[in-house]
Structures are given as structure tokens and as C-alpha cells.
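By way of example, what follows is a protein record of this kind.
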Amino acid sequence: MRIDERIGHHYPELGPQEQKAADTLLDHLGDLAVYNAAELSRLSGVSKATMSRLFRRLGFADFNEVKEHTRTLRASGVPVAAHEEGDLAAHLAYELDNLRRTFEQLDAGQLTAATEALASAGQLLLIGFRNSFPLALHLRQQLLQCRGNVAAAPQPGQSIGEELAGYGAGDVVLLLGFRRRPAAFAAVLEAAAAGGSTTVLIGDPSARRFAAKADIWLECPVDSVSAFDSYASAMSLMSVLANGVLAVRAKAGRDRIREATGLFSALGELEE
């Protein structure tokens, strides 16, 4: 059980001082690493004994165990409130580091294989659950400018089975597997592969355990100093993939862009 759930469960039975200590823990889950137990006690205005008693009530041996628990939560993608939300310099530094890590560790062979597969697929299905779905939508919008038969799933109200049906040899299923995936994620990847489609998997390091099940694996970190994961580097990778597909498709891609641009003008869809 997460620490916030433990606090919520025990909160009604805590004394006033323990509730103050619990409130302080909840306010500082994202930056507990910068405090020791004595500093946290002073911050909450309670005694060290009260703080220690709270830890035990919550099922932790000591403050070090609490800190390790919160680190594990954040690493799994759980939003943990950070107290440095105004530190834009720290946020920028982390974003730049994510971008650097993404492209320094990117396997050139896997990237080339991914762009060629996306460019040549008969049908292309982009699957993104939860926070990965906006990435799938964005990549679809980019790819549709230079090729057809690109779909994003799961669409609202649809099950993944009916979206995946009909994809097989000559098609590509790209799965965006960023953390806090649904429990059925591995089964979806396996079903796509079993159907004969080429499978491309893109995710943060927590998705490495699925990499062997995919034909192509691209890794992209989403760590952040904030409470929420950042997908800036993932969006940058989507741009690289789309550009690579256009380069592979060459004249066919340029012809489709020209046709789409002409339709934009004919339909008056975009401002001049």
C-alpha cells in the first residue's frame, strides 16, 4: 500500500500531533530526500518521538524506509508532489538531460529499422494507453502528412481487440509503452506479434522487460523533477521518426504533402 493510502487509512485514528506530522509527509513526498528525521520533525512542529511513532503506525521501520518507499513510487510513475515546483532551472536541466540520454543511447540500427518499417508498412497502427495516447495521436498526425493507412488506438469506447484485428504480415504495430501501463500491455504486444505484424516498442527504461517481445525497441526516459513525468524527449523522438519516414518515402511522401496542402487550401482549413 502506498504511503498516501496508508496515511488516509490511519488518519482518523491519529492524534492531533501525528496528523500534523502526516500532513507534512504528504506535502513533502517529492523532496523527502533532502531532509533527515530531525529536520522533518522541526518542519512539522512535532517531536522526533511523534514522527517516529507515526512511521511505525504506517508500517515503516524508520525514516530511511519511508524515503526508499517514496523513491520507488516516483520511479514507477506515481505523481509525488515535489516542493521545488518553482525551480525552472532544475526543470530545464532535467529536460535537457532526458534529451541527451535519449539520443546518446539511441541505437542507430534500431532507429533506421523503425523508420523503414513505418514508411513501408501496408497498414500502420499506433497503440498508446493512458499518457501514451497523446503521443500516438501526435505521431499519427505527423505521419499522415507523408503516408496513408495510419491509425491510432484505442479509440474512445473501443476495445483493443477490434482495433488490432486485421493487422498481419506486411503491417506494423507500434506500441508506446511508457510507465503506468495497463496490466494487459504485454498481452497486446504478444497478440500483435502473433498476428504477423512487425512490432515496434517505444518506452521508458521500465519497459525494457518487454523489449525482447518486439522486433524493434527504442528507449526514451521520462523522468522529471516535478510530480509528473515529462514527455518532452518522447515528443522529440516522434519528430525524428516522422522525419525519417518522410526521408524514406522521398517522392511519394512529398507528393502526399503536396496533395494534403492543396486540400487545406481548397477547404479553407488553415490560415494563410
Q: What stands out?
A: The chain has two domains: 3-75, 91-267.
